[in-house]
Amino acid sequence: MKTTGTDRIFTGTVYTILIVCSLVVLLPFLYVVLVSFATKHEVLSRGFFLFPKEWTLNSYQFLFREHNFLKAFQNSLWITFVGTVINMILTSLMAYALAKRWLVGRKTINLLVLITMLFNGGIISTYLVVNGLHLLDTYWSIWLTGAIAPFHLIVMRSFFQSFPIELEESSRMDGCGELRLFWNIVVPLSMPAIATFTLFYMVQNWNTFFNALIYINDSDKWPLQVYLRQMLIEAADSSMSLDIEGFEYGPPVKMATVIVTAVPLLIVYPFLQKYFNKGMLLGSVKG
């Protein structure tokens, strides 16, 4: 097919816009990475720059010697792992049940799920419930309050509804019970959906901040995001800006903390990418 001059201009314009948008997104990230390898004196004296004159690993060495940072990193890993397991088990089981048209009360439950997407109980009432269940200062206050995301549940339900009824009937004729049918048939065929929402829930749990700030008062149980907030507060107070070794919570340390916080998700994403790309079309096409 022959391309015209108008087509070339249009293609060139599209590529130019995409390149500019990519640079706008990439530049702040690149700045954060490079500043983390600079010295505090250079950051404060030079202002904006991309390539440090003096490269150093002092910020990362400080972080990995800092007990509070290592503890917060460990807490975030635990919150993310257990929380994602809870999220996926409850979401997939509930979505599978709601995909069954013969389920008694299915329409009512679906309506209640939809209502939670529009309204919630509010911060005060949720806090009172968490406090009444004696969950304050425990990770259950984070895991249970965000156990099922309504939007993820609805999309996964639509995915399960796209399964042919003949597959279910033939499995039952072979003696499969409901749990065995779900585990041996549905789960293997649902890997794109499971991988997609696993990634979404991992990001949600890894970035948990507000719930942890409200429900977790014990500093030994803080996740990384709350630790980073505390670091910024301490850095703003000149009387608290030095640790016992005299290394300041300067810009390089803050940037290094941001980079280390983002690394686990950057490592996990490539392993889920092939499923994630398929899962982005969940519920849009009936199979």
UniProtKB/TrEMBL annotation:
Chief location bin: membrane
Matching entries from InterPro entries are given as: MetI-like, MetI-like_sf
**Which Gene Ontology cellular component terms are annotated?**
plasma membrane
Q: Name one Pfam family in it.
A: BPD_transp_1
Which key words tag this protein in UniProt? Cell membrane, Membrane, Transmembrane, Transmembrane helix, Transport
SUPFAM superfamilies, A to Z? MetI-like
- Entry's transmembrane regions: 12-38, 77-99, 111-130, 142-160, 181-203, 255-272
Q: Name one GO biological process term.
A: transmembrane transport
Tell me its family. Answer: Belongs to the binding-protein-dependent transport system permease family.
What is the protein name given in its UniProt record?
ABC transporter permease
